[in-house]
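Next comes the chain:
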Amino acid sequence: MIKIRQFLAISALTVSLISVSTTFYPVKAQEQKTEEQKVQLMFVQTADDIKTDNKTIRLVNVNPQTLYFADRPVRLAGHVTTPEYMKEWTASGGSDNFTNDPPNATLSVYEKGQPQNSLVVIEISNPVIDGKDLVYNYKVIEGKMPKSGGQSALFIDWIGAGGGVGPGYYGVGVGTRGVGVYGGYGGPGYGVGGVGR
Protein backbone atom coordinates (compact mmCIF):
# COMPACT_ATOMS: atom_id res chain seq x y z
CA MET A 1 0.00 0.00 0.00
CA ILE A 2 1.36 3.41 -0.96
CA LYS A 3 1.69 5.73 2.00
CA ILE A 4 -0.25 8.98 1.77
CA ARG A 5 2.85 11.20 1.68
CA GLN A 6 4.48 9.00 -0.99
CA PHE A 7 1.23 9.08 -2.94
CA LEU A 8 1.13 12.89 -2.79
CA ALA A 9 4.72 13.08 -3.99
CA ILE A 10 4.02 10.68 -6.88
CA SER A 11 0.84 12.58 -7.79
CA ALA A 12 2.67 15.91 -7.80
CA LEU A 13 5.46 14.43 -9.93
CA THR A 14 2.93 12.97 -12.38
CA VAL A 15 1.13 16.31 -12.71
CA SER A 16 4.49 18.04 -13.24
CA LEU A 17 5.51 15.58 -15.96
CA ILE A 18 2.16 15.96 -17.72
CA SER A 19 2.51 19.75 -17.60
CA VAL A 20 6.02 19.64 -19.07
CA SER A 21 5.22 17.10 -21.79
CA THR A 22 1.92 18.59 -23.00
CA THR A 23 2.49 22.36 -22.90
CA PHE A 24 4.91 24.86 -24.40
CA TYR A 25 4.38 27.63 -21.88
CA PRO A 26 7.33 29.47 -20.38
CA VAL A 27 8.88 27.91 -17.28
CA LYS A 28 7.06 30.35 -14.95
CA ALA A 29 3.69 29.31 -16.36
CA GLN A 30 4.57 25.63 -15.89
CA GLU A 31 5.61 26.24 -12.28
CA GLN A 32 2.42 28.17 -11.58
CA LYS A 33 0.28 25.41 -13.11
CA THR A 34 2.04 22.75 -11.01
CA GLU A 35 1.46 24.82 -7.86
CA GLU A 36 -2.24 25.12 -8.67
CA GLN A 37 -2.57 21.35 -9.16
CA LYS A 38 -1.26 20.22 -5.77
CA VAL A 39 -3.33 17.36 -4.41
CA GLN A 40 -5.61 18.12 -1.47
CA LEU A 41 -6.78 14.99 0.33
CA MET A 42 -9.79 14.95 2.63
CA PHE A 43 -10.71 11.96 4.79
CA VAL A 44 -13.95 10.21 5.76
CA GLN A 45 -14.39 7.82 8.68
CA THR A 46 -17.62 5.91 9.31
CA ALA A 47 -18.82 4.20 12.48
CA ASP A 48 -21.81 2.24 13.74
CA ASP A 49 -22.38 4.64 16.63
CA ILE A 50 -20.85 7.50 18.61
CA LYS A 51 -20.50 8.26 22.29
CA THR A 52 -19.50 11.71 23.47
CA ASP A 53 -18.83 13.73 26.58
CA ASN A 54 -17.69 17.34 26.95
CA LYS A 55 -14.17 16.58 25.70
CA THR A 56 -14.12 13.33 23.71
CA ILE A 57 -15.92 11.68 20.86
CA ARG A 58 -15.79 7.91 20.46
CA LEU A 59 -16.43 6.44 17.01
CA VAL A 60 -17.86 3.08 18.03
CA ASN A 61 -16.89 0.14 15.82
CA VAL A 62 -15.19 2.49 13.36
CA ASN A 63 -14.62 1.17 9.85
CA PRO A 64 -11.02 -0.13 9.68
CA GLN A 65 -10.57 1.71 6.38
CA THR A 66 -10.39 5.50 6.23
CA LEU A 67 -11.56 6.84 2.87
CA TYR A 68 -9.79 9.74 1.18
CA PHE A 69 -10.63 11.87 -1.82
CA ALA A 70 -9.21 14.89 -3.60
CA ASP A 71 -10.90 18.03 -4.83
CA ARG A 72 -10.52 19.37 -8.34
CA PRO A 73 -8.43 19.58 -10.48
CA VAL A 74 -6.97 16.20 -9.48
CA ARG A 75 -9.84 13.78 -8.97
CA LEU A 76 -8.91 10.65 -7.05
CA ALA A 77 -10.19 8.52 -4.20
CA GLY A 78 -9.10 5.50 -2.21
CA HIS A 79 -8.68 4.20 1.31
CA VAL A 80 -5.99 3.58 3.90
CA THR A 81 -6.00 1.50 7.05
CA THR A 82 -6.64 3.31 10.32
CA PRO A 83 -3.02 2.78 11.50
CA GLU A 84 -1.79 4.31 8.22
CA TYR A 85 -4.14 7.26 8.69
CA MET A 86 -2.83 7.70 12.25
CA LYS A 87 0.63 8.44 10.83
CA GLU A 88 -0.76 11.78 9.60
CA TRP A 89 -0.83 12.78 13.28
CA THR A 90 2.90 12.21 13.80
CA ALA A 91 6.20 13.67 12.67
CA SER A 92 6.31 11.01 9.94
CA GLY A 93 3.41 12.95 8.39
CA GLY A 94 5.72 15.91 7.78
CA SER A 95 5.78 19.40 9.28
CA ASP A 96 2.12 20.00 8.40
CA ASN A 97 0.94 16.93 10.33
CA PHE A 98 -2.38 16.98 12.16
CA THR A 99 -0.76 17.22 15.61
CA ASN A 100 0.92 20.51 14.66
CA ASP A 101 -2.22 21.80 12.94
CA PRO A 102 -5.34 19.96 14.21
CA PRO A 103 -7.96 19.48 11.51
CA ASN A 104 -11.53 20.63 11.51
CA ALA A 105 -14.16 18.01 10.74
CA THR A 106 -17.88 17.78 10.16
CA LEU A 107 -19.69 15.02 12.01
CA SER A 108 -22.95 13.70 10.54
CA VAL A 109 -24.94 11.52 12.96
CA TYR A 110 -28.15 9.57 12.37
CA GLU A 111 -30.40 9.99 15.40
CA LYS A 112 -33.47 7.76 15.55
CA GLY A 113 -36.71 9.70 15.32
CA GLN A 114 -35.08 12.82 13.90
CA PRO A 115 -36.07 14.00 10.39
CA GLN A 116 -32.46 14.83 9.45
CA ASN A 117 -28.98 13.82 10.52
CA SER A 118 -27.41 15.97 13.21
CA LEU A 119 -24.43 17.99 11.95
CA VAL A 120 -21.70 19.57 14.02
CA VAL A 121 -18.41 21.19 12.96
CA ILE A 122 -15.55 20.38 15.33
CA GLU A 123 -11.78 20.55 15.69
CA ILE A 124 -10.35 17.11 16.47
CA SER A 125 -7.09 16.16 18.19
CA ASN A 126 -5.26 13.38 20.06
CA PRO A 127 -6.71 10.30 18.31
CA VAL A 128 -6.44 6.98 20.14
CA ILE A 129 -7.34 3.53 18.82
CA ASP A 130 -9.24 1.68 21.57
CA GLY A 131 -10.09 -1.82 20.39
CA LYS A 132 -12.55 -1.37 17.50
CA ASP A 133 -13.20 2.26 18.45
CA LEU A 134 -11.40 5.49 17.58
CA VAL A 135 -11.44 8.25 20.20
CA TYR A 136 -10.71 11.94 19.56
CA ASN A 137 -10.61 15.02 21.75
CA TYR A 138 -12.76 17.72 20.22
CA LYS A 139 -13.79 21.39 20.40
CA VAL A 140 -17.11 22.49 18.92
CA ILE A 141 -16.82 25.15 16.22
CA GLU A 142 -20.48 25.21 15.20
CA GLY A 143 -23.56 23.21 16.11
CA LYS A 144 -24.36 21.01 19.10
CA MET A 145 -22.62 17.71 19.78
CA PRO A 146 -25.12 14.86 20.24
CA LYS A 147 -24.49 12.65 23.28
CA SER A 148 -25.02 9.50 21.21
CA GLY A 149 -26.41 8.40 17.89
CA GLY A 150 -26.47 5.74 15.25
CA GLN A 151 -24.59 5.47 11.96
CA SER A 152 -22.09 8.31 11.78
CA ALA A 153 -19.64 9.81 9.31
CA LEU A 154 -16.74 12.11 10.13
CA PHE A 155 -15.50 14.26 7.22
CA ILE A 156 -11.96 15.38 8.05
CA ASP A 157 -9.81 18.30 6.90
CA TRP A 158 -7.39 18.13 4.00
CA ILE A 159 -3.74 17.20 3.84
CA GLY A 160 -2.02 19.42 1.30
CA ALA A 161 -2.04 23.07 0.32
CA GLY A 162 -5.24 25.15 0.12
CA GLY A 163 -8.90 24.18 0.56
CA GLY A 164 -9.88 22.51 3.77
CA VAL A 165 -12.54 21.63 6.25
CA GLY A 166 -14.45 24.36 8.00
CA PRO A 167 -15.73 27.77 6.96
CA GLY A 168 -15.09 28.26 3.27
CA TYR A 169 -16.25 27.37 -0.20
CA TYR A 170 -14.24 24.36 -1.29
CA GLY A 171 -13.75 22.17 1.75
CA VAL A 172 -15.60 19.94 4.13
CA GLY A 173 -17.43 22.01 6.73
CA VAL A 174 -19.51 25.15 6.75
CA GLY A 175 -19.54 26.38 3.17
CA THR A 176 -21.47 26.41 -0.05
CA ARG A 177 -19.68 23.49 -1.68
CA GLY A 178 -18.48 21.34 1.19
CA VAL A 179 -19.86 18.96 3.74
CA GLY A 180 -21.53 20.90 6.49
CA VAL A 181 -24.31 22.96 7.90
CA TYR A 182 -25.18 25.40 5.12
CA GLY A 183 -24.95 23.28 2.02
CA GLY A 184 -23.09 20.68 0.07
CA TYR A 185 -22.60 17.07 0.95
CA GLY A 186 -24.77 16.15 3.91
CA GLY A 187 -26.36 19.55 4.37
CA PRO A 188 -29.35 21.36 2.94
CA GLY A 189 -28.43 22.56 -0.52
CA TYR A 190 -26.78 20.46 -3.16
CA GLY A 191 -24.43 17.55 -3.34
CA VAL A 192 -24.23 14.07 -1.86
CA GLY A 193 -26.68 13.73 1.04
CA GLY A 194 -28.02 17.24 0.53
CA VAL A 195 -31.51 18.32 -0.39
CA GLY A 196 -31.96 19.22 -4.03
CA ARG A 197 -29.86 19.30 -7.18
Remarks:
- The CA atoms of residues 105 and 181 lie 12 Å apart.
- The helical segments are 4-22, 27-36, 82-86.
